[in-house]
Amino acid sequence: MDTMRERFTAVTSRLLDEDPRLAVVLAEIGRDGFTRAQGRHPDRVVNVGIREQLLVGVGGGLALTGLRPIMHTFASFLVERPFEQLKLDLGHQGVGGVLVSAAGSYDWPAGGFTHMSPGDVALLDSLDGWTVHVPGHPDEAEALLRHAVAAGDDKVYLRLSEQTNQEPRAVDGARFLTLREGRGGVVVAVGPMLENVLGAVAGLDVTVLYASTVRPFDAATLRTAAAVAEAADVVVVEPYHEGTSTRQVNDALADVPHRVLGLGVGRRELRRYGQLDEHLTGQGLDPRTLRERITGFLAP
Questions:
Q1: Confidence class of residue 1 from pLDDT cuts 50, 70 and 90?
Q2: Sorting pLDDT into bands at 50, 70 and 90, what band is 299?
Q3: By CB distance 3.0 to 4.6 Å, which of 38, 137, 151, 291 could disulfide with 168?
Q4: CDD domains given for it (predicted)?
Q5: Domain 177-298, what architecture?
Q6: With contact defined as beta carbons under 8 Å apart, do 29 and 36 qualify?
Q7: What are residue 146's phi and psi, to 5 degrees?
Q8: Where are the domains of the chain?
Q9: Torsions phi, psi of 37, nearest 5?
Q10: Window from 163-167, 241-245, 271-275 with minimum mean pLDDT
Q11: At what angle do helices 138-149 and 4-18 cross, to 10 degrees?
C-alpha cells in the first residue's frame, strides 16, 4: 500500500493536468515527486527553496490572481514557522488555499523536535475559518484532497501521516462516522488513531465515532451519540496535542451534563528519537494504555 504522502503526490500531479486553476508551491521538501509535473506546468509548480515564510506568501499571491494553491512541506515548516504568513497573507487578505503537511507530530523521529509539530491544529484554531482534515488512510487522504481542491476559495489544512488504519472509511469531508454504538460513553477517534482506539475498546459497551474532519467540528453527530449513552461522557483521542478538541466537545454539549477527557500528544518533549510506535507508547496512545485510560475515565 502506498503512503498518504505518495498518494498526495500522484493525485496532485494528475489534478494539475486536469485543472488549470490549480498550483503547487514547495519549499524543497517533496520536490522530487513533482519533477514531471513541473516539467509539464512550470508556471504552476513553484519551488521557493528553504524559505517557508515565502512558501505561504507565494501561495497567497497566487490565490490573489485566482489560482487555487496547494502548499506542501513538513507540518512544523508549514504551520509553525510561517504562522504569521498564514494569519496575514491568507486570512487577512481574504484568500484561501490548501495546506498539505507531512511528518505530523512525530512521524519522522530521527529528524528531532524541529521536524515534529504536535501543536499545529491548536495553532490553526487561533485563526478564523480553517477546515482541518486528518485522514487515517491513503484512500481517505485522496478523497479529502479532492474535496479540498474543489472547495472554492476556502482555507483548508490536510494533515497527512505515516501512521495509517488497516482499511479506509467512506469519509465526506464533513461528518463523523458512527462505527459502533454503546451506552457506556462515547469515544471519538481522530484519523490514524482509529486502529489503536478500536483495539483499546474491544468488548467495551461504548460508542465509537470516527473523525477525519475535525474543523468544523461535527457537533450534531456527537450530540446524537451522547444522547444514546447512559451518561454523556466523551473521550477524544487525537494524534496531536491532547485536549485540542475538548472546547469543541464542551460547546457541543453545553446544555447537557457531561464529562470530557482529551487524549493525545503531551506537552512534554520526548527527547529520545526512537521509532513511531515507541513515540505512540511513550505518549500513552498504544492500545493497552489507551484502554487503561479510557476505562479509568468511563468507569462508574
A1: confident
A2: confident
A3: 137
A4: TPP_PYR_DXS_TK_like
A5: 3-Layer(aba) Sandwich (3.40)
A6: no
A7: -60, -40
A8: 4-159, 177-298
A9: -65, -35
A10: 271-275
A11: 30
The fold adopted by the segment(s) 4-159 is Rossmann fold (3.40.50)
DSSP per residue, 79-135 = IITTHHHIIIIIIITT--EEEEEESTTTSSGGG-GGG--TTHHHHHTTSSSEEEE--
Q: Which residue has the cell 513553484?
A: 46
Mean pLDDT, the chain, rounded, equals: 96
Max Cα–Cα distance, the chain, nearest Å: 62
**Residue that has been written with the C-alpha cell 530521527 in this structure:** 110
Using an 8 Å Cβ cutoff, are 214 and 121 in contact? yes
pLDDT 10s digits, 15-54? 999 999 999 999 999 999 999 999 999 999 999 999 999 9
Query: What are the C-alpha distances in Å from 125 to residues 46, 129, 159, 208, 217?
Result: 28, 9, 14, 24, 11
Structure-block grid coordinates of residue 53: 515564510
Do 4-159 and 177-298 show the same overall fold? yes
Please answer whether residues 276 and 196 qualify as being in contact, where contact means their C-beta atoms are separated by less than 8 angstroms: no
Query: Rounded CA gap, 43 and 14, in Å?
Result: 16
Mean pLDDT of 107-119: 93
Res 3 pLDDT > 80: yes
DSSP sequence for 167-200? S-----SSPPEEEE--SS-EEEEEGGGHHHHHHH
